[in-house]
Specification:
The protein has 331 residues and is mainly beta. The chain has a single domain, classed as Beta Barrel (Porin), CATH 2.40.160. The chain is 12% helix and 56% strand. A 16-stranded antiparallel β-barrel has the order 1-2-3-4-5-6-7-8-9-10-11-12-13-14-15-16. The radius of gyration is 21 Å and the shape is globular.
């Protein structure tokens, strides 16, 4: 308890100093987000659950050092794993971003603890991170932030490419093990409102873990949008032939300026190893169905009533059906 109070006091002091500094200069900006919900879950196997929940809070500060350099600091406060009810009770503060950015015309270089481009395009296109993570983030195909260096260049309005060299452990497991993850991404915009994205990365120890992501998204401005992605990971955690793959399809229909309907379908599967009777990741394989309606009364507040259904492929695991009232507050 004392340690938690000290942490909260430290965060308060940091934010107070940041706010004062930002008020002294027009080059700085404090920002943040809060994800919260009330949900009721109905289990085929196990007890039904309902609760109010604060999933995550982000507190950050951006500062322009000059016309080319920018500093971005972001604290991520939440449960790092969320694999059990006990984990949901714990809250930790991590630096999710501590990055220095350099921008010159169409060139951007990021260094430090930086946000990753692995599923950034897909997550923005999905648009409802406060309700449900994007596919690769949800199923741990990669981290949303990591230590390292990334370079992106916009060759034309139709083509952009990015490269990265990262530690590969993610932002909450910053390890030094002489293993690096190298990634390459290509984003195409061949016609107006159409986005095509390909990404691949490589990280090797005893075996090489390889991740490939493909995405196509199309928008009809002020009416609707549809995104489709296919992801595959070979030799998960350097284990030979431990492969996973998955499909994610999602769409949004804009009813009015403040009201939207959204839906999504995910499918995750793995392969069998040798003569094993079951897929190696069967306990986590399955499909997800989401759907709901969002109301955004202001630019800073989003409210969504939504249905979520997880259908596991393992015969001994029951469906998990949930009704959520989700909230995002941004500053």
């Amino acid at each position: 308890m004392k340690r938690s109070k000290n942490l909260l006091l430290l965060i308060a002091l940091i934010l107070t100093g940041i706010t004062i500094k930002a008020q002294e200069s027009t080059k700085g900006k404090v920002y943040g987000k809060l994800y919260s919900n009330f949900h009721a879950s109905f289990m085929e196997a196990g007890e039904d659950q309902s609760a109010f929940e604060v999933q995550r809070a982000y507190l950050g500060y951006k500062h322009s050092l000059d016309t080319h350099f920018k500093l971005n600091l972001l604290l991520d406060i939440g449960s790092p794993e969320q694999n059990s009810p006990y984990d949901l009770l714990k809250r930790y503060a991590y630096f999710k971003k501590a990055e220095l950015s350099y921008k010159l015309n169409d060139l951007t270089i990021n260094f430090g603890l930086i946000g990753m481009n692995q599923f950034n395009v897909q997550e923005k296109f999905w648009g409802y991170r406060y309700i449900y993570k994007s596919f690769q983030d949800k199923h741990k195909f990669g981290a949303s932030a990591d230590l390292g260096l990334s370079v992106s260049y916009r060759f034309s309005p139709l083509l952009e490419a990015d490269m990265s060299v990262m530690n590969g452990e993610g932002y909450n497991q910053l390890q030094n093990d002489n293993t690096y993850k190298t990634g390459l991404g290509i984003t195409l915009l061949p016609i107006k409102n159409l986005t095509i994205r390909w990404y691949g990365d490589y990280m090797a120890q005893s075996e090489a873990q390889i991740t490939v992501a493909n995405f196509v998204g199309y928008k009809i401005p002020d009416i609707a949008q549809l995104g489709v992605e296919y992801n595959i990971q070979l030799n998960n955690k350097y284990r030979k032939d431990h492969n996973s793959q998955g499909l994610s399809v999602y769409g949004t229909f804009h009813l009015t300026e403040k009201w939207e309907l959204f839906a999504r379908y995910d499918q995750l599967s793995s392969n069998t190893i040798g003569n094993e009777p079951y897929d190696w990741n069967l306990a986590k394989d399955g499909s997800a169905i989401l759907g709901g309606i969002e109301f955004a009364p202001t630019q800073s507040v989003r409210l969504a009533l939504n249905y979520q259904d997880w259908v596991p492929y393992a015969a001994n695991l029951g469906n998990e059906q949930s009704i959520y009232f989700s909230v995002e507050i941004a500053i």
